[in-house]
Amino acid sequence: MTTQIHSGLLHREPPIFELSSPGRTGHALPPSEALDAEDLPQAFLRRQAPLLPELSEVEVVRHFVRLSQWNHCIEAGMYPLGSCTMKYNPKINDAMSALAGFTAVHPLQEDEHLQGSLELLFQLEGLLCRVSGFHSVTLQPSAGANGEFTGLALIKKAIDVRGEGARRRKVLIPDTAHGTNPASVVLNGFEPVPIVTGPEGVLLPDAVRPHLNDELAAIMVTNPNTLGIFESHLKEIAGLVHGAGGYVYMDGANFNAIMGKVRPADLGVDTMHFNLHKTFSTPHGGGGPGAGPVGCTAELAPYLPVPRVLRTNEGRYRLITEQPNTIGRVHPFFGNFAILVRAFTYMLENGGAGLSRVTEMAVLNANYVRSLLKDTLAVSVDVDTLHEVVFTDRDLKKETHVSTMDVAKRLLDFGFHPPTVYFPLIVPGAFMVEPTETESRVELENFVETVKAIVQEARTDPDKVTSAPHRTGVGRLDETTAARKRILRWTPAQP
Amino acid sequence: MRYLPHSPQDIQHMLETIGVADVETLFRSIPRDQRTEHPDDSPGLPECQLRRYVEGLAARNKHFCVTLASAGAPFHAVPKAVDTIVSRSEFQTAYTPYQPEVSQGTLQAVFEFQTIVSELMGLDVANASMYDGASAVGEALLLALRAHKGKRSVVWVSEGLHPHARTVIDTMLHAFGDVTVRWLPLDEHTGATVLPAPVPADVAAIAVGYPNFLGVIEDVAAVAAAARAAGALSVVSVTDPSHLGILASPGALGADIAVGEGMGLAGTAGMGGPGLGLMAVRDEYVKQMPGRIVGQTVDNRGNTGYVLTLATREQHIRREKATSNICSNQALVALAFNVHLSLLGPSGLRDMATLSRNRAMELRRGLLEIPGVRPLVTGPVMNEFALVFPRDAAGLRARMADNGILFGVPLARFCPERPAWREAILLAATETACRDDIAHTILLAKDFYREGK
Questions:
Q1: CATH numbers and ranges of domains, chain A
Q2: Does the beta-carbon distance from B339 to A64 stay under 8 Å?
Q3: A263 near B38, Cβ under 8 Å?
Q4: Is B133 an 8 Å CB contact of chain A?
Q5: Which domains, ranges and CATH numbers included, belong to chain B?
Q6: Strands B424-428 and B384-388: what pairing?
Q7: pLDDT confidence of A9, banded at 50, 70, 90?
Q8: Shortest CA distance from A16: residue in chain B
Q9: CB contact under 8 A, A486 and B295
Q10: Could you tell me the pTM of the whole model?
Q11: Contact present, B326 and B131 (Cβ < 8 Å)
Q12: A258 and B30 in contact by Cβ < 8 A?
């Protein structure tokens, strides 16, 4: 196999299976033994070995290091994906989560033998309660969407307990919502009902009023919403929804915008999920693992998933696995524990004061980008925004035929990961920038100058923009062919 | 604060550019009466104190030198190289690969992961991962209900699935509504799932553990055949994919959907996670599959490349009509699994499974020499098994703990009302235990019961 060089030292790697050569191995197990096959029926044994690569450790490590070099990451540069809060991931968090005292313990050891882990879970629940105002928190959900499922399940349980399960099935969802919201509603056997955001980008009580009846289960609101705008009527809307016997779910994806400023529980929110992989700096891992803890009011707390961690009067920690009204479990054992350790470390390092400052700088950064770019790209709704700002390609496309996607792809040529594009769905050609607090003024200015240069280029040399990216390792990829041809695994070439 | 790169001069300049007097003004869109009155202004901890505190917590967990327990969290020997790869910034601090031109590393790794999972499971297509093995079973059952387009509303699930998984499935399916879960009991003698015959025509899926919670290797071929004859889908939940170095793949035994928990091979089983849900299906069900899927394609320069594909199944496109709400999954854990399996290769995987089973059989035989010790059930096992001890199983476990040995998990913890389980312990061995560890454990057990006479 000859190596293809893309440019400089960037290696084009074949699928690992093509590097394989019989007889090599990279493991360090004790010497092979014959299988003790007593009582094992022959019919249960594997006849054909799985097609795994045969490689030494050196070759495996090189393969994956080379693959890694084809990725952009937050540690290499700005990653301003709106709604994703791609902030720097502190290194101390990783060190604490890798402590052998946490990683080498079996989850079913006796409570007495897990006191450190249980105390950590108990304290983290407390920190999340403090910053949100909720009565209780569960740390089990694996990710934001899993948290949505869990919070809605608490609401469903409360409605069932009241004996109204058959009737109250409607969940109101504003048109700015993330796609997971309606999907989570359906997984709870509820029916999503879309409602329209007002002209100023916020939900108005009048949009909710027609739905205030005994079929209303809940409203599900992201606050600040996906336009980066604070839902200033949420408190009033929560009152209306409660008055009609419904509950308020808040999607906490954008919690980075309000720490120390607003506590969701004070707005009348009944339950909310946190995204620890957004607000609380845990790494996203190229698509997880994240963690989506759920906070709730005292009314919903009896329905939280088990196990619950209890602190005894003697200062010991104990697991409660039986609760009469619990929704059950949403995860085996304790959720994505290693992620929880990272978030806990981050919250301790910041303290309450530090978290408020995080929010302030995140909002400052987003507004700085907005003020520098607002004459270059149209802002979707011209009202105050917090941690992110959504631009639209409306004017640009009319003038040049260059779209948001083209600008996004051209940004890659200059070393920037593009913002979130084409979301929220209500904004044509949305270009949604969330810089987060960990970008410097200089980095923001570089980003802005690059966007301005691309918009200028769209006027002078539009083909250059629409055919971008030019400098990345691969060019624009054909997604239609991928969906049509469906090559979803490697297969050996036919001889 | 070290993570905030703002000098006072920067802040001043930025505020002037924005045209506001101070940072507070940036929050004017929040009505006064909704603001937190007394925000928490507690200070943070410097790194040295932070370390001391968190390390102190970690030290308060008891560390066992030898772990003879799995019960859903199998401990395997994962080489350091795995951690080195997954700790790389480029993998660890990237987002979901929405911009494929700068995410080929993640995308190709997922493509390789899908290949490995489909090979292990013996099925056509795998996805990029689910949260954990438990929710993967729940998702598989929902898939089966969709595949029947709502015409079948009953699922049969073996009581031999992990008790936590059973509760997760119950929570998921109860929430979903319009579905009846019938729990299939285990035969008291053999420990295998009792499958009533014939399977009625309203059953959408039958799910079993492989091996089940008591360690018994279920007759998957028989379950798959019974399901197929009734037009239902068979769902096989692989307890520890390392077993597939020896045991026949679910696909070869006729399964339609295979799921599993991969955290043991990924090295994240400590404290039970992050988990790694595996899922593979026959090709005809790919459009009903939940989660991310990566496909191979070409770019506009003729290069091979990889993208997220079949997105019309997913929540960000289909919203309430999506196959699932899953978005973030367990990508980095899947990468660890991928790297580890690549290091093992076919011979390493077989060796790992063989060593695990051989140590477990030594342990089992040695303990059964003690008068009064008997197997809880008689079915064939892989590397996990339940034994009933003549008395004071708790005392025995405490003695083992004093000697640094985690001696299984008491079954009574999961089902205190079953008298047969009162003195039963669920034990397992993997390649992390050596022959001497096993011999020492057996000696300690023999001594314990000899003393007590």
A1: 92-349 (3.40.640.10), 359-481 (3.90.1150.10)
A2: yes
A3: no
A4: yes
A5: 66-73+345-451 (3.90.1150.10), 80-340 (3.40.640.10)
A6: antiparallel
A7: confident
A8: B112
A9: yes
A10: 0.97
A11: yes
A12: yes
